[in-house]
Design goal:
Distance between the termini: 11 Å
Number of strands: 8
Structural class: alpha/beta
Helix content: 40-55%
Bound molecules: adenosine monophosphate
Number of helices: 9
Largest sheet: 5 strands, parallel
CATH class of the domain at 3-116 and 194-207: Alpha Beta
CATH superfamily of the domain at 3-116 and 194-207: P-loop containing nucleotide triphosphate hydrolases
């Protein structure tokens, strides 16, 4: 089963992806994580991506498509499926994804939109931090680790915050989402694969709704 998780920054796509990895054994493919890794290691992709990411803009398609194509094609045959988190982010990217999947004989089974209003997103993003080891997402306001300073999922004691989670960049990322990414909702609605989930509900309730939807999709 291959899934696209759509939604604005801070909607909870990362949190839900980790749940889907653990529960459905799908592999999370986050273009944001891949690009942050490229920036951190100073690779040629990272050198190009850095200024776009710092400004909250989309990294050029040729760069992102290269990164995601490689990741999809590198998945071992026995993988149960993948979750695209952060890709596609525009209608042109969705067209490129369709072509790529056609070429390698795969398809998307479901598109889940995690829907959250802008004012809530800004607060969520300002409190967000992740486990430095497994990427589990926590929040100063909504979800602290059960034991202070220890990741609930893997037990690591190192955490990190994203440099683009600052108010100016967040505002720009929301503009980009509304202008370029939101039109994907109609794109996938027309394909009959879309399910919109209220991302303002409690994390456990969002998980439950995704679970119900995917359970029905699998049958
Ligand atoms: P994310 O972690 O998904 O919020 O992505 C962080 C940043 O990485 C975005 O603000 C963009 O600069 C860049 N990025 C991630 N995915 C894409 C994509 N599909 N297309 C273009 N830029 C992307």
């Amino acid at each position: 089963m291959n899934i696209i998780l759509l939604g604005p920054p801070g909607a909870g796509k990362g949190t839900q992806s980790k749940y889907l990895e653990d529960h459905f054994h799908l592999k999370q493919l986050s273009t944001g994580d891949m690009l942050r890794h490229a920036v951190a290691t100073g690779s040629p992709v990272g050198v190009v991506a850095k200024s776009f990411m710092e400004g909250g803009k989309l990294v050029p398609d040729d760069v992102v498509v290269g990164v995601i194509s490689e990741a999809i094609e590198a998945l071992p045959k026995e993988t149960a499926g993948f979750i695209l988190d952060g890709f596609p982010r525009s209608v042109p990217q969705a067209g490129i994804l369709d072509q790529l999947l056609d070429r390698i004989g795969k398809n998307i089974d479901a598109v889940i939109v995690v829907d959250v209003k802008d004012d809530i997103l800004v607060k969520r993003i300002s409190g967000r931090f992740t486990c430095g080891s497994c990427g589990e997402v926590f929040n100063d306001f909504f979800r602290l680790p059960k034991t202070e300073g220890v990741c609930d999922r893997c037990g690591s004691t190192s955490f990190k915050r994203r440099s683009d989670d600052n108010p100016d960049t967040v505002r720009e990322r929301l503009v980009v989402y509304h202008e370029q990414t939101k039109p994907l909702i109609d794109y996938y609605k027309a394909k009959g694969k879309l399910n919109i989930i209220d991302g303002e509900a409690a994390i456990e309730d969002v998980k439950e709704r995704i679970n119900e939807f995917l359970g029905a999709t699998r049958q």
